[in-house]
Amino acid sequence: MKTASSPAGKISLRQTFTALKYPNYRLWFYGQMVSLFGTWMQSTAQGFLVYQLTDSPLYLGLVAGASGFATWALMLFAGVVADRVPRRTVLVITQTVMMLLAFVLAALTFLHWVQVWHIVLLAFLLGIASAFDAPARQAFVLEMVEREDLTNAIALNATMFNTAVAIGPAAAGFAYAAFGPAWCFTLNGISFIAVIAALLRMRLKPFSTTARRSTVLGDLREGMGYVGRHPIIRTLTAMAGVGSLFAISANTLIPAWAVSILHGDATTNGLLQSARGLGALASALVVASLGRFKFKGRVLTLGSFAFPGMLLAFSSVRWLPLSLLTLMGAGAAQVLMMNLANALVQTQSPDHLRGRVMGVYSWVFFGMMPLGGLLMGALAERIHEPLSIALGAALAMAFAGMVWLFEPKVRALE
User: Fold this and answer.
1) What is the pLDDT along the chain (414 residues), one digit of tens a residue?
2) CATH class of 18-205+215-411
């Protein structure tokens, strides 16, 4: 579909922020922007604190794996919940739990009681909350915008997410060096107030579900069966899972990379994290500015090759400026791949199954991420960080080649 002001496929600044014309989405956008800034401050500070406490990349993976266990165990069930319970209610509950967990970690750190097992336990509890948060959050977008503006809304979600990635880690690095990690955790806790308030202020249509005679397990089987029978959704979900397992998981090793490879400190760690976010932010803005473009499959395919390609380049360099540049490229390519996969899965899904389909998609995507982090941490203990990242990137590249050869319909998607 073309508009008079912006032909489909041409960059238009006017089209970049289309989804913000919806009042509910505006509330979501600004509330999430504040909350995500705090989230990335905590994530960056927590990773560096774990490495300081243990001097081991294995524990970085262990913390990631602890949150992933809950994701694997609960997210499919959470997709059913997202189709049965008002999604705003689910999000208010999960965001409140996340806020309380951040304050607990801050208190333990202020009191100098924090130990690595505390962080692992809190990561596990955060994984439980995230398991219910993710499918509800993914499916909630279409309650805030119309279907034709879904891709733009998802691109703007990536914009706010990666604005936080670009700023939050660098701010965390400086704050960690100046004031210690406890303040990073405290600011994260406070930041959740913004998104909770935004959710409560929204004026939404009444939440409705179709009449159900099925059990929860029956609903779950229906959603999984739909994904399994739908070749495009099945392939897109597999692409997201493989990218998460072998490519995104490289982020787990960045704190160790900053210290052992680049001989830096907390500030170096923050800069590396922010470089990836800056590249992703630029890419998300480009996708948003394209409007309702008709070559999403080709852009997705480009990202599926470029993402592992940039990680291979990153694994081979030892100079900070070049490391920052390659991470920016990796962040940009990650958005092209992951955000378009998300948008295409949603547009291919019927409304009454969207929560469950996104539950399966989120289960694969978010579940593989900490599993990949655990794998990367274990590999780095044995073969060191550079070879671990290069091996993961090579496997992701090989899978992208298989999709190119055997699933040509993916690159033809509009």
Assistant:
1) 334 444 455 555 567 788 889 999 999 999 998 998 898 889 888 988 988 888 877 787 788 778 777 777 888 888 888 888 899 999 999 999 999 999 999 999 999 999 999 999 999 999 899 889 988 888 888 889 887 888 788 878 878 877 877 787 778 888 888 888 999 999 999 999 999 999 999 988 877 665 455 787 888 888 888 988 999 999 999 999 999 999 998 988 888 898 889 999 878 888 898 888 889 888 888 877 765 667 788 999 999 999 999 999 999 999 999 999 999 999 999 988 988 898 888 888 887 787 788 888 888 887 788 778 878 888 888 888 899 999 999 999 999 999 999 988 888 787
2) mainly alpha
The 3-class secondary structure across the chain, one letter per residue, is CCCCCCCCCCCCHHHHCHHHHCHHHHHHHHHHHHHHHHHHHHHHHHHHHHHHHHCCHHHHHHHHHHHHHHHHHHHHHHHHHHHHCCHHHHHHHHHHHHHHHHHHHHHHHHCCCCCHHHHHHHHHHHHHHHHHHHHHHHHHHHHHCCHHHHHHHHHHHHHHHHHHHHHHHHHHHHHHHHHCHHHHHHHHHHHHHHHHHHHHHCCCCCCCCCCCCCCHHHHHHHHHHHHHHCHHHHHHHHHHHHHHHHCHHHHHHHHHHHHHHCCCCHHHHHHHHHHHHHHHHHHHHHHHHCCCCCCHHHHHHHHHHHHHHHHHHHHHCCCHHHHHHHHHHHHHHHHHHHHHHHHHHHHCCCHHHHHHHHHHHHHHHHHHHHHHHHHHHHHHHHHCHHHHHHHHHHHHHHHHHHHHHHCHHHHCCC
- Six-digit token string for 17: 């922020």
Q: How far apart are CA 319 and CA 85, in angstroms?
A: 50
Q: Pick the closest to residue 244 from 366, 90, 385 (CA basis).
A: 366
Q: Among 252, 247, 218, which Cα is nearest to 334's? A: 247
Q: Which residues contact 55 (CB under 8 A, 6 or more apart)?
A: none
Within 8 A by CB and 6+ apart from 49, the residues are 109, 114, 119, 181
Structural domain boundaries in the chain: 18-205+215-411
Q: Name 42's Cβ contacts closer than 8 Å, sequence gap at least 6.
A: 102, 105, 172, 184, 185, 187, 188
